[in-house]
Write the structure tokens for this entry.
Amino acid sequence: MTPAAVGIDGCSGGWVVAAWAPGGVPRLFTLERLEALGGTLTAQGLKPSRQLIDMPIGLPLAGPRPVDQQAQAALGAARASIFITPPRPVLDALNFEEAQRLARAALGQGLSLQAWNLVPKIRAVDRFLRRAQPAPPCLEEAHPELAFQRLNAGQGGAPLPSKKTSPGAAARSALLEALGLPCAAVLAAPLTCEGRRVALDDRLDALVLAYLASLPEHDLECLGAGDVDALGLPMTLLAPKART
């Protein structure tokens, strides 16, 4: 089995996964359910060395997570790409109106529509990890935009344009190539999940998390280190160390 660094991002229809053995070419594939992750990697002859996902793991009962506030501060002008994590009670909401009521009770403010739209995937990650307890979580949380911004600063690059634009996507692809992760070929190939096209920015996000998962510990920073939620799940976020 070949050790591989794994990055996972949500996409329309399920999940997009990047698996990379440094020195080789990354693989991109999709899953409808996270439960298929281990078997799919094994079928490809891969053993994950670290698995990072762009989705909240530890969920607060009340108030914002300190790690979200730390990540927003670290992103500066790009802070809007970090949303406040819905509190755990919101996972039981049946609709947006109920979620708003539960969020206001727990946070003192409502949810953004973006955060509500991610609740099904947050719920899926939560259930996936809780089934694996009491073992340590097999997934760790990371944020692609924070990873891109810090890696880019480490290369001395100019500020990155929005990832939703063609220049922004091209800049991120070029950054990964410069860092030693060859991604042009896999990004050029079409990718679908449950019949739906996987957006380019979702594929780039999975790839940067795979790169991040490949880094040695001394090149990583754990924001929110030591914080856990009421169920013992970590409320932390891995990022490249900031350039000094």
